[in-house]
Design a protein that fits this description.
Alpha-Beta Plaits; 404 residues; Ribosomal Protein S5, domain 2; alpha+beta; 16 strands; homodimer
């Protein structure tokens, strides 16, 4: 008997123009367009295996090996049902010989290769991998943009993880959400020098969830509508042009301004929402000073910080500057664990904390070990990948393999 | 021979609708109107003695006993010269017998009764006291609003310290600034139950000065203009009405929203400006939770936080709730020095840290001693006072007395 199964992996993406606010909370339709860089799934990824089998009793998901109940009417169920519907309409109804996979329950095993404790949102890569693996299993003829419509309903920003490179989520205007999907602004290969240094910041307290936080901003901020109507559209156009032109100065300036403005409207919420803490702010001070020196010496910016709904910093930079930034962060934030030197910047002796010449060291205080729990160096990457059977996360019985 | 001398004291004011941005940096004309509560000068004040004497060589100022050079063309010189001009025009030109004080140099001694280290802006009370003492010395017939036009040119928010109670600074529209002055919204006696608990927050690093910070916001924030044009005018009207009606709920809601929005536009600046730190944010979390409990129990808010260009919290509350707030702050922020119990809330045994029933203690972590360096309990107060000769800060020679 055939095994109907597919495995896919999908990347994390980090927005430069931030998504904050829904105009439809059920369909997950945003109040503004957004734009992100897809990060390399060689480093950070979600992997998902989906199997359809007539013997399965009900749709079941295991997340990192643990049963994660699928709530009826919930976002996960919405995605699975929509993909089954497409299987029926686009495949089975057109080809009578196609197995009726849409009528079988599915077993899904999903695994993130980065710890939840890292504070990196796994819902984007997770839903993108889930949609990709089911689309492969069902042999759907859908394009990444079409699949992004489904991933969007799982987790808004997941739609952007259906592409590699530089990706826009066009907000759309239709009530049914059919024009609210992701498009590729430029592939990874257009500007492969874009690197990212992620600083995982220690956070004592749990912040406001982005789902509830963004709706509170929609309801109470006196500034959000201005951002939506008058600021974001121009920034979307400008940063797309900057990416086309590989203009890092413009890319960095817009990315930092939009991170700041996202946190500004979060603060303009009642009660106010704070995602950045004093460590996040110290990293901003370092990047501002690093750019000041760079601008003075070269006339160009060298780094762009951005913060999502948490205290972690993602610092975009071009490949040639990544070493300086890793050294800079180490200088102020001593690390407990050795830096994972994926790009072989440092050779055998490891990283030494260091600032560039002319850097005013007084812009921040050195912190204690663990203020920044980890530093991840990665770069722009490709979109979802289909993996071979040997990568399956399900065993013969259709339950999760035990991972090493 | 006569001694021409006057002494005045003036209060601190803390804005509920924040002043942030100048449309004219020389005349100090703001981009929006603002509104403040004047605090009791029995507790926090600047006192200034001015003396005019033909033997004096040049205008001289001592601030807290230390010679503070008067820069030609600077703000201090502008205020002194404008008051001399009024002396000539309004007094000497009309009454030939009036001594020609406008032709004498002045010696000015000014003293703040709160330490600079407290992080409370002393420029507002300082310029208000200076203008008040010179106006008295020169026997000017000017009203407080007229004097506020002069104080404004010393330090914008100083104009609001020319009145007690609840004070608006009308931004005005004229290019010469002649309609940009303070007016009384309501006197202290209209709503004397307004108390303030000031938390002096320890701050490791020196923040951006408000003078340079606000102009950077004017130049780079994409949100400030919306605030100025579409948010502040309605808030000014609404909070004035709330004060007239003694409606603490509306007063508190607007005060907190405007503090948040001021810090939001500071964050929306390039590079971003942060005045609040993690301790400031913890105090916000406490007040939000305290209000949540109050709303649930009584249907009303009990406290309103507000932050100026620094990490200190000012918590407005009605007299009846001041004790609970002082206890709440002590619970999370242990104090090195004994609380100055001006209103005899606690009797002999001193303050015990305590939360109200139903309060979720997990909203913040208890901090170490000195995270909040001091707690000052005060209330709404009156406007500048003229003091007797026995309060003079100048000795017979016209130099500062040594203060105990």
């Amino acid at each position: 008997m055939s095994v109907f199964q597919a495995t896919a992996s999908a990347p994390v993406n980090i927005a430069c123009i931030k998504y904050w606010g829904k105009r439809d909370t059920k369909l997950i339709l945003p109040t503004n367009s957004s734009l992100s860089v897809t990060l390399d799934q060689d480093h950070l990824r979600s992997t998902t295996t989906s199997r359809a089998d007539p013997s399965f009793k009900k749709d079941t998901l295991w997340l990192n090996g643990k049963d994660d109940p699928i709530k009826e009417g919930g976002r996960l169920a919405t995605c699975i049902n929509e993909l089954k519907r497409l299987r029926k309409v686009l495949v089975e109804d057109k080809d009578a010989s196609a197995p009726k996979l849409s009528t079988y329950a599915v077993h899904i095993a999903s695994y993130n290769n980065f710890p939840t404790a890292a504070g990196l949102a796994s819902s984007a890569s997770g839903f993108a991998a889930l949609v990709s693996s089911l689309a492969k299993l069902y042999e759907l003829p859908s394009t990444p943009s079409e699949l992004s419509l489904i991933a969007r309903q799982g987790s808004g920003s997941a739609c952007r993880s259906l592409f590699g490179g530089y990706v826009a989520w066009e907000m759309g205007t239709k009530a049914d959400g059919s024009d609210s999907y992701a498009v590729e602004v430029a592939p990874q290969s257009h500007w492969p020098e874009m690197h990212a240094v992620i600083c995982v910041v220690n956070d004592a307290k749990k912040g406001t969830s982005s789902t509830s936080g963004m709706q509170r901003t929609v309801e109470t901020s006196a500034l959000l509508q201005h951002r939506i109507k008058h600021v974001v559209p121009k920034r979307m156009a400008d940063i797309s042009a900057a990416i086309q032109a590989r203009d890092f100065d413009a890319f960095a300036q817009i990315t930092m301004a939009d991170s700041n403005q996202f946190h500004a409207v979060a603060l303009d919420t009642e009660p106010p929402i704070f995602y950045m803490n004093d460590v996040s702010k110290a990293i901003i001070a370092l990047i501002v000073e690093y750019n000041r020196v760079a601008l003075e010496k070269t006339g160009h910016l060298k780094a762009a910080y951005t913060y999502d709904a948490g205290p972690n910093a993602v610092i975009y930079t071009l490949q040639e500057n990544a070493k300086e930034i890793v050294e800079l962060i180490h200088k102020y934030f001593p690390q407990k664990e050795a830096f994972n030197d994926r790009f072989q910047l440092f050779g055998g002796e490891g990283v030494k904390g260091k600032v560039v010449e002319g850097f005013n060291e007084a812009v921040a205080q050195p912190h204690e070990v663990d203020a920044v729990k980890g530093i991840i160096h990665t770069k722009v990457g490709d979109g979802p990948r289909t993996l071979g059977a040997e990568e399956s996360l399900l065993n013969a019985e259709g339950t999760p393999k035990t991972l090493a």
